[in-house]
Design a protein that fits this description.
Elements: E1 4-9, E2 18-23, E3 26-30, H1 39-47, E4 56-60, H2 66-69, H3 72-77, E5 83-87, H4 88-118, H5 130-136, E6 140-143, E7 149-150, E8 155-161, E9 169-177, E10 180-186, E11 212-216, H6 230-243, E12 247-251, H7 257-270, E13 279-282, H8 284-295, H9 302-309, E14 322-325, H10 328-336, E15 341-345, H11 354-360, E16 369-372, H12 381-386, E17 391-394, E18 397-400, E19 404-407, H13 417-425, E20 434-438, H14 442-454, E21 460-461, E22 468-470
Helix pairs in contact: 4-5, 4-8
The structure holds zinc ion.
Zinc ion binds at residues 63, 65, 164-165, 189.
Length: 472
Amino acid sequence: MDMTLQFQGAARTVTGSMHVVRINGTTLLLDCGTFHGRREEARQRNSAFPFDPASVSAVVLSHAHIDHSGNLPTLVRQGFRGTIYCTHATKSLCEVMLKDSAYIQERDAEFITTRHRRRGLPAVEPLYTEEDVNATIPLMRSVDYSRTFELTGGATCRFEDAGHILGSASVALHLKDGSKETGLAFTGDLGRTGLPILRDPVFIGDGQDTDTLICESTYGGRFHARIEDMGKQLLEPLRRAFDRKAKVVIPAFSVGRTQELVYVLHGLVTRGDLPAVPVFVDSPLSVNVTKVFRQHPECFDAETRAILQAPEANDPFGFSRLTYVGSREESVALNDRPGPFLVISASGMCEAGRVVHHLSHSVTDPRNMVIIVGYQAENTLGKKIVMKEPEVNIFGEPHALKAEVVVLNSFSSHADRNDLLAYVRRFGASRLKNIYLVHGDLDQAEKLRDGLVESGFRRVHIPARGDTAPLV
Ligand SMILES: [Zn+2]
């Protein structure tokens, strides 16, 4: 029987990460993320799997970001009963993130249904509910980094730190089918050396021969500004905005980017660089996630561990002008609060969550500012803001985009072109039989492919969704 790999998500795009490994009649999934994009298309893709979820025996989860983990409750809702393998911190994060995701989907469905009713349109159902999440968590089994463990179907697996978010992993799989054996590595989302808080990425290619590599390509054709410039890049627009009493909205994933922003703002406050303006982190999730961060010091770099051991005043996840907003009422109160202030809110691509409300209350005023610090997928509200479209739809209503839009590129928690090329070169062009570039828009994947071909790699593919390849 053949061993095959099939790409069912994050193929020529950056969301919905999901790859199917078939071996000995067993089906394994690498990631099970939600797809983000046009509302209807997203709903359709996230609710219908191209295989029977009950036939999947295990999921190997690279990290907790919702575009990698967010569709697990749908998989369980539709019959999956196998095991979900991930690192300890990923499990802790998923417990809070998937609940939050269910909550957001239930609230958004309610909100849209209310609007629909007024127009005589049908009610909208959430993708999944908290109940589905409660059925998912017990299926998660967490394991240490750097430890080889058995999966079903004659496969073994190992996680190494990907240095991308707390608990993030690259995955090494060793697959065996009769006399055939093969090594498959999956980068997951690859981080950057020197990112605040996290340890640096560990190369996944040590310890076994890799025949096939699935590599992310989010920034396959771009170079990031230096990590050391994060503070400087943020300070200049913030000063300008606060001078004109602006509300500043920074859309950010609740996990990773938010803690990173708080860490950098903490540095600016400590140095006395930041004007005395209130900062709000508005996400019911952020308080819990920050707690999870504190529970997993094994994922921290030496610098953060040292700061954490210092007194409360030096807490890198909080400072005196920072308020974590928990309740919905407090969040709504921010809508009418006069500037200047800064609010960091999720989701990172402005597709759901409280940030959508903050944007609907701020984008029409030219005094205000939206700072984009993360990758925005095609067709998301965040992408439309980056493109500075004169009018954007928010909750189905047109809003004039008059607020100043600032796009910063030092905050990425993804490897850039140089990092990716250097990483893949370590496998050796003569060793790797096939490279599949995923998790990148087509132009970025093509640029990375060209760079890898120039480096001597021969078989570099950019699979489309649904493509199947033999594992040899
Ligand atoms: Zn990620």
